[in-house]
Amino acid sequence: MKDKIMKESIDLFDSKGFSKTTIQDIVDNIGVTKGTFYYYFESKQELLRDIHLSFIENLLHQQEEIINDKNLNNKEKLYKLVYIIISEIKTSGKSARVFNREIRHLEKDHIDNVNSKRREFRLNFQKVIDEGIREGEFRNDLRSDIVTFAILGMVNRSYSWYNPDGEMSEDEIVNLYMELILNGLTK
Amino acid sequence: MKDKIMKESIDLFDSKGFSKTTIQDIVDNIGVTKGTFYYYFESKQELLRDIHLSFIENLLHQQEEIINDKNLNNKEKLYKLVYIIISEIKTSGKSARVFNREIRHLEKDHIDNVNSKRREFRLNFQKVIDEGIREGEFRNDLRSDIVTFAILGMVNRSYSWYNPDGEMSEDEIVNLYMELILNGLTK
Amino acid sequence: MKDKIMKESIDLFDSKGFSKTTIQDIVDNIGVTKGTFYYYFESKQELLRDIHLSFIENLLHQQEEIINDKNLNNKEKLYKLVYIIISEIKTSGKSARVFNREIRHLEKDHIDNVNSKRREFRLNFQKVIDEGIREGEFRNDLRSDIVTFAILGMVNRSYSWYNPDGEMSEDEIVNLYMELILNGLTK
Amino acid sequence: MKDKIMKESIDLFDSKGFSKTTIQDIVDNIGVTKGTFYYYFESKQELLRDIHLSFIENLLHQQEEIINDKNLNNKEKLYKLVYIIISEIKTSGKSARVFNREIRHLEKDHIDNVNSKRREFRLNFQKVIDEGIREGEFRNDLRSDIVTFAILGMVNRSYSWYNPDGEMSEDEIVNLYMELILNGLTK
DNA sequence: CATGAATGAGCATTCATTCAT
DNA sequence: TATGAATGAATGCTCATTCAT
C-alpha cells in the first residue's frame, strides 16, 4: 500500500504539482480513504521526502558502482554518470520531474537528509572531474566545482524536454552531451 | 503601487515560494490592504504572469539587439547571449529564480503569452547556433535544437547556486561556460 | 444621471438579481465611476428603495384616478385595477420584476415608506371589493381581504411568465383574468 | 447531520434570505464548524438546490397520488391539488417561503433538475384543467395554460401572508379559493 | 460633478490533519 | 488496517463605501 500511495502521488505531483495535489486526490485515485494515507505517512511532507529519498538513493547507488569501478578511466566514468541521469529520466520520467521540480516544497523538518544526499551526488560528480584533471584527462584551467554545476545543469534539465518515446534514443542524447562536454562546439 | 506590489511579491515568491506566499503577506509587507492588491491585479495568477512577462520581455529585448548586430560573428553573439542570462541573475537574482522556479504555478488562462515568449527566447538562441554552423564557426555534427537545450539548461541553472557577492565575477562565469561550450573539457 | 443610473440598475437587477449586481457593474455599463454613483445615491439600499418607490407611486396614482371615477361601477373599477398591473408588466416588465422579486433585499432603514405604499395599494384594491359587495355587485360570502390577496397573487405573478411580445395581448390576459375572477371556471 | 444542516438553513434562509445567510451562520447555529458543512455539501448552491429538490419532489409525489385517483372527478382533483399547496404552507411554511423566494439564487449548474420538476408540477396542474374541460366540468372558452398560471399564482402566493396560527384554517382558505376559482365573485 | 485610489470587513471554499470506532 | 466524520486555520477574492483631489 505504501508503494501504491507513493506511485500514485508521483503521478499526481507530476501532472498537477505538489501544492495542487491534495491527499484526497491521492486516495481517491487508489480507492482508499484519508485515514489509510495517514496510517502509512505522518504527513504530506513525509511523503514528499520519501519520494525524494527513494529517487536520490537509487541514483547514489548507481553512482557508487561506477566510481568504484577500477577498469574505467575518468572520461568513461563521466560518460556513465551522465548516462544514469538520462536513463533515469527515460525510465522514471515522472519521478525525475518531481525530484527536480518539487524540491522547494520540502520544508525544514524533512529536507536535511535529502539535501545532504543531493550534495553527495554532486560531489561524487565533481570527484570524477577532479580525478580526471589530476590524471591529465581533463584540462586543468577550469574550476571543477563550476564545471560540475554546469554539466549537472545541462543534463538534469533534460527532464523538461526529453521525450523517451521520441526520435532520439538515450544513447544519442548522452553521446551528444559528451561530445559537447568533452570537445566543445568549435569546428 | 503596481510596481511596489510586484517587487515585494518577487521578494516573497523567492524566499517562500509562490504557493506559500499569501496575498496578505504581500500587502502586509507594503503596508496596504488586500483591497489595494485587487485594485491593481485581478488575481494572484495575473500577478505571477506579469512577473514572468516582464522578465522574459526584458530578456527578449536584449537578445534582439545582439542578434541584429552585424558586427558580431556567431561565437561572439553566443557569448553575449550567455552573458545576458548571467548578468540578469546577478542584477535580478530574485526575479530570475522566480522566473525559473515558479513557472509551473502559472495556470492555463495565464500561461499562453509567457510560454510563447519563452519559446521565442530559446529559438533565438538556436538561430545563432544554426547560423554558426552554416558559417563554419561551429561543428555540424550536433543537432542544434538539443545543443540549445543543453546550453540553456547549463546557463539558466546558475540561478540556483551563483552568488553575485561571492568570489566569482559574472565575467569569469561566462568565460568558463564559453570555454566549456566552445572547446570542451578535454586537455 | 440619476435616472440613467436607476434605469441601468433596473436592467441589471432584473437580469442578475440585486445581490449579484455590484455598483461596479452599474457604473461600468454607464461609463462613469463609482464616485459618481455615490454622488447621487447614499447607498445601494437607497437606490433599491428609490426604484421601489418610483414604481409603486406610479401605480398608486393610476389607482387613484380609477377609484375616484364616479362613472364606473365596481366591476369596471376592478377591471381597470387589474389592467394597470398587466399594463405595467407589459411596458415596464423589468421594473415590475425587480419590484416583485427584490423587495426582500430592502432592509430596515429603507423599507418603511415602501411597505406602507404597497399596503395602501392592496387596501385600495380591497376597498373596491368591499364597495362592490355593499352595492350587491359581488357576492357577500367571501372575505374581501383574502379575495384581495388572491386576486393580487394571481395578477402580480404574471411578471414571471407573461411575454408582451408573445401571442397574447394585454387585453386578452385581463379579460381572461376577469372572467375567472367574476364568473369562475365552472361550465 | 445533513438533515440538521438543511433544516437550520431553511430557518435562516427564511428569516435572513439566502444571500445574507452565511455558512458561518448556519454552522454556528448547529454548533459545528464550516468543515463539517463542506463535508456534506459541495457548495452553498448545492445546499439550496437540495432544499428546492426536496420540497418540489415531495409536492410531486402528493400530486401523483391525486391525479391517479380514479374515484375523483376533476373538480375534486383540483380541490386536492390546491389543498396540498396550502397544507404545505401550513406545515412547512419556511420551506415554502424559501422555495418560492430564493429560486432566483439558484445558478446555472444547479438549476436544471429543479426547473424541470417545477415545470412538471405546473403541467400536472394544467392536465387536470384540460381533463376537466374535456369532461365538461369546466368551461372551454379559457386557455388552460393561462388559467393554470393564474391559479398557481393565486395559491402559491399564500406563503407571503397566510398565518397558520391565525384565525383561518387551511380548509377555510382552500374553500374560499375554490369558490372563487369555480364560481367567481359575481353575485 | 466626477475620479480613482484605497479600505476593511466579510465570505465561500480548501485541505492537511485528527481520532473514535 | 482502514474508515468516515469532524476540525480549524488559512486563503483568495469581493464589494459597498470613503475621500482627497
From TrEMBL, chains A, B, C, D:
Signal peptide interval: none
Membrane-spanning intervals of the chain: none
DNA-binding region: 22-41
InterPro entries, per database record: DNA-bd_HTH_TetR-type_CS, Homeodomain-like_sf, HTH-type_Tx_Regulator, HTH_TetR, KstR2_TetR_C, Tet_transcr_reg_TetR-rel_C_sf
Pfam families reported in the protein's UniProt record: TetR_C_24, TetR_N
Keyword Repressor: yes
Keywords: DNA-binding, Repressor
Segments forming domain HTH tetR-type: 1-59
Designated name of the protein: TetR family transcriptional regulator
Provenance organism: Neobacillus paridis
